[in-house]
Design goal:
alpha+beta, binds FE2/S2 (inorganic) cluster, about 140 residues, three-stranded antiparallel β-sheet
């Protein structure tokens, strides 16, 4: 059996939603200190719906495929639905990832959550801090810049 599913290969070769949103409503940057890969997510939000989403990923093929799939999964969805996206859902939508590549999909979940937190913070929207516990926005890490 091939190491990577057709869907992973497709999203790696033809990633959807690559780019930057100027004046995004929320931006989140997640990184993995072990492999050094970084994923940045930009959200445009209108009436509590993700009207547009873009990503920039400096990382492995699985991280690119995960970013692409994750952005497709939240585009056009209400904010609460995007906040509930798990790396498991991203992995399932990709028809699986090798076990040693599961952490790549975690970056997508974390970057989306951080972008939503940024949106909540910028707009004074209250949230449960527990939801974001343990997440570190790479944009705030001096060593990455
Ligand atoms: Fe680290 Fe893929 S190897 S994100």
């Amino acid at each position: 059996m091939a190491l990577y599913s057709d869907k992973v290969m497709d999203h790696f070769r033809n990633p959807r939603n690559v780019g930057v949103i100027e004046n995004a409503d929320g931006v989140g940057e997640a990184g993995n200190p072990v492999c050094g890969d970084i994923m940045k997510i930009y959200l445009k939000i209108d009436d509590d719906v993700i009207s547009d989403v873009k990503f920039e990923t400096f990382g492995c093929g699985s991280a690119i495929a995960s970013s692409s799939m994750a952005t497709e999964l939240i585009k056009g969805k209400p904010v609460e639905e995007a906040a509930a996206l798990t790396n498991k859902a991203v992995t399932e939508a990709l028809d699986g990832l090798p076990i040693h590549k599961l952490h790549c999909s975690v970056l997508a979940e974390e970057a989306i959550k951080l972008a939503l937190k940024d949106y909540y913070d910028k707009n004074g929207i209250p949230y449960d801090p527990e939801e974001f516990k343990g997440l570190v926005d790479c944009a705030s890490c001096a060593e990455n810049h």
